[in-house]
Amino acid sequence: MKNIYSIVFLLIVFLFGSGSCSTGKNKNAGSDDSLNTIAPTPPMGWNSFDAFDCRINEAQFRETVDYMAKYLLSYGWNYAVIDYIWWHPHPGDWNNPKRRYGHPNIRYAKDGKPLDPTTIDQNGRLLPAVERFPSAAGGKGFKPIADYVHGKGMKFGIHVMRGIHRAAYYSDYPVKGSKWSAKDIAEPSDTCNWCNHMFGVDGSKEGAQDYYDSLFELYAAWEIDFVKVDDILAPEYHKDEIEMIRSAIDKCRRPIVLSLSPGEAPLDMAVHLRGNANMWRISADFWDEWDKLKENFDLLNSWSSSIQAGSWPDADMIPIGRLSLGGRPHGPERYSNFTLPEHYTLLSLWMISRSPLMLGAYLPDLPENILSMITNPEIIAVNQNSSGNRQLFKENGKVAWIADDPVSGGKYVALFNLNDSVTKVDLEFDSASMDGKFSVRDLWKREDIGVFEKSFGVELEPHSAGIYKLER
């Protein structure tokens, strides 16, 4: 009989223990549903930061969504994301001489208690400020805006800061679904050096996972499709909080794209990132500066082996069009400082490296020539459908990237001239293990340019680029 009881016990352990939903942290990988199938291609969309900083309101956001639905959605640009500090009623309006105007830092008393208003619920979860997002009134949160975006056939995202708001800590709000409170899980010494709203959440403490579970339970109720988590990769890599967030997303049972920021992400955490996030920033904040664009060549090359379905090294938002409305967040209000050739270089690099594509400008007055660039279906196909993406060479200001077209069996080639003068950039076919004759199509111009054997080259303007499709 003892043997029979032992067998029954082992069967119970196997059937119920191995199949139960773990409340522990996910150490390495999210489920296939949470990663590979949610973002099988690099996400494409728009984020409010480059144009509006932390000050966007509902009317401005809906205007952008309308523009996207009319002009961009049919080309794959389907995510619309509200960036940071959406819980503050009037960000940038206070008189705080120790902080630059518009920076979303709150004032606090000597004991650290916030002096500025925060929209927050009784479980320490931040809510959209109704002064800026009136449809959130009555406890609706972002659900009405999500419904509006979904009604356009698009997907809706938000930015959040890592951790728990200091207002929750000083009020010691209870953590939903647990016997713990904000003071039990928060780490007041763990703060962001550029946005002081939040305290880190200590993953070793009871209640920490429950807090993150409660956040994503709320986001799932709002029907959020994309969450960008900030202050989590650099200057310190917050491994425990990444894992708690991954676990919370898996539990909430909603397909939410997880984006991690800011960069540079540590390259030695590539396996961990591929197992927990859909996209992660490989660079610091990227703006319309040629030197920063040149730096991203090396960063994207370093991360190219990590490109895979569901997990995408992220070169940051695309700063083309009108930026920094009202003189924030970076420099004066302006149209992008990139020259037209530099626009081709930026977009060609993001496309051939399969970076996520997130526009950042004020879209309703996007110049027609820029709109035509970002709605070129042959160029977008490189980003969305290629494979084996890698840098072939980078020398003397000449760069070549190559990728496979799994549909036709051909090759995509991007050639770049980083020099300050017109330069011919050549691709020797044998350097890419190619032989024979190839027909070449210029994807930017959308025209065939001839048949080439052994090599193919083009003269490029200073700081310019081209993308070509080569087929036998």
Question: Tags for this entry?
Answer:
single chain, 472 residues, alpha/beta, TIM Barrel, Immunoglobulin-like, 6-stranded antiparallel sheet, 13 helices, 28% helix
Class by alpha and beta content: alpha/beta
Number of strands: 21
> What's the average pLDDT?
91
**What's the main sheet like?**
8 strands, parallel
Strand content: 15-25%
Radius of gyration: 24 Å
- The CATH topology of the largest domain is TIM Barrel
Number of domains: 2
CATH superfamily caption of the largest domain: Aldolase class I
| Strand neighbour order, sheet with most strands | 10-9-8-7-3-2-1-13
The number of helical elements comes to 13
- The stretches of 5 or more residues where confidence is low (pLDDT under 50) are 1-32
Oligomer: single chain
Q: Helix fraction?
A: 25-40%
Q: What form results from the Cα inertia axes?
A: elongated
Level-1 CATH class name of the largest domain:
Alpha Beta
User: Which architecture of the largest domain would the CATH scheme give at its second level?
Assistant: Alpha-Beta Barrel
Distance between the termini: 73 Å
